Amino acid sequence: MITELSAIIESILFTSDTALSTDRISELLSEFQRNEIKAALAEIVSFYQERGGGFELVEVAGGWQFRTRTPFHTYISRHIKTRSAKFSQSALETLAIIAYRQPVTRAEIEHLRGVDCGGVLKTLLEKHLVRILGKKDIPGRPLIYGTSKEFLEVFGLKDLKSLPTLKEIQALDAVPRYERQEELQLEPERVVPVEGDLPFE
Question: Where in the chain is the domain with CATH 1.10.10.10?
Fold first, then answer.
């Protein structure tokens, strides 16, 4: 059963383009107590989980957002037919360095990658996956970079602590150990007669 406050929050979240934090919802609904808003959010999450429909309310990018359920993405893509975001190897490497080492300068990224990354950084900034956090307090005052709220939304992360650890990443590359199958016994090789051994009349 959805309460009136839950219905109000549901309508606000439904019409929002981005994930809304609990703080932002509290600002918008100042006539309600923060603990009431948190309880209403939990109620909405529970309602959609029990309903088991096509979408759910999830905590992502430090806020709340309605998202379609993962098992149905194949069917949704048939309808939407939009190009999924594709990243080059260099863009993924750069994004990974920024995500795990932020705040980080361009020089630090280039030192780790061993190549110039100006063009890649520009692309990531244009896609709003990376943002400029300020300038580092060293000679030259280089810009420092970090990931954005859009980065968390695109990758479906609640916060940066949700990034997979090195151990989890290495586990993906682990080769499964299967029982070794015994070699099958093949028929003994047949001797093929050479031309000189063939009987001729």
Answer: 4-79, 89-160
Q: Which CATH number fits domain 89-160: 3.65.10.20, 1.20.950.20, 1.10.10.10, 2.40.128.280?
A: 1.10.10.10
Rounded mean pLDDT for each run of 10 residues along the chain, 201 residues in total? 86 89 92 92 91 88 86 80 69 90 90 87 90 88 90 84 79 59 54 54 49
Longest dimension (CA), the chain: 113
Integer CA distances (angstroms), 12 to 24, 108, 133, 159, 188, in order: 11, 41, 29, 22, 77
pTM of structure: 0.54
Cα 158 from Cα 94, distance rounded (Å): 21
What is the C-alpha to C-alpha distance for residues 184 and 41, in angstroms, rounded to an integer? 61
Neighbours of 150 (CB within 10 A): 16
